């Protein structure tokens, strides 16, 4: 009988890309709206590394990985991004995903790749595989039927519209600088800008306008990318896709601009960084309402020592961590972490632990997002030595909140 058959895991060759794409459309309940969209998916899949699950010769599971580079506090690392994770509905809950993950971890281990990352379609899937939520954002809604009330003076320099064709060259270097200031951000290629950020027709809502880009300052001091929607039955909408600014005054000017666009009465923004100054400098929090918190990038520490050594540390720490790891035994055990602003060592030890945690909790703290103390209070980290979590938090601290806008 089919459900007794044993699954096999391995490469998905280029010759089977049509089948792989059909499987992804089946699992995600989608059909491409036109040939161009299908070709885009096909080309994306062709460029990704791919793992499949096979029942006999039939492809019943697919996982692809983008070749990303992720910013860390004070550094960056390659971090393959999982995407197109799909299992045929006839073969669900038989270990296809678990087997593909095991095959992926084997490959990444062989290639000395220390991290992997993803956005989850459902929250409950990936924690068991050691992924922790490493960046978060919030969604915000602005009532723009009246001018945006501000407590600070917005930057008064003129704003200018930028053609989408010119945007990668202008915004690319600016965005790249922000990666040095915040963990959790992907390096963007020109193709990524064009195909993911500046694509004419919005992937999720075809009734949205093409992307509009507005810049402030020369040299560039800030920018917004947004789309608008005119609703014939109600007020139009501005959907902010990205806002970056050198100073709060520049940010204030850009937010005020978004809230002033004619024939619209609402601005929505998704995935804003946790430390967005808007929430402080707006004068009326009834006008600027936080409507949700979004778990963003999930990170898997494949090689914990290499991952910890690649980031910088804000303060001295000397703690023994007892790490559990259900998939990668090399990460499990007692390790002494000695870190300081000039470097970090992470070595196995027989010493008793100061803190015990699963590797997914370490991932949640890794980029400076969730404080270890919060996880102690949630009983997800055990503190054996009083004060150990606070000391580790001080060392993990980052000036700016980690943040990811590139969904994939
Ligand atoms: C990065 C991305 O691409 S995210 C997109 C993920 N894909 C989708 O959402 C598409 C639709 N869903 C699917 O294709 C499949 O259901 C998948 C990929 C989510 C899961 O694949 P499966 O082969 O059924 O998972 P598998 O059998 O390996 O399950 C492994 C474990 O995860 C659990 N699990 C799997 N899916 C889920 C889920 N959606 N919610 C909670 N737990 C889950 C299983 O119960 C199992 O737990 P156990 O080890 O305690 O028994």
Automatic annotation (TrEMBL):
Ranges for domain N-acetyltransferase: 7-153
Record-listed acetyl-CoA binding positions: 85-87, 93-98, 121-122
Keyword Transferase recorded: yes
Keyword Transferase: yes
One MF annotation (Gene Ontology) recorded for this entry: aminoglycoside N-acetyltransferase activity
Domain of life from the UniProt record: Bacteria
Keywords attached to this entry: Acyltransferase, Transferase
GO biological process: aminoglycoside antibiotic catabolic process
Active site: 126, 408
Similarity field: Belongs to the acetyltransferase Eis family.
Subunit structure: Homohexamer; trimer of dimers.
PANTHER family from the UniProt entry: N-ACETYLTRANSFERASE EIS
NCBIfam families for the chain: PRK01346.1-4
Protein name (record): Putative acetyltransferase
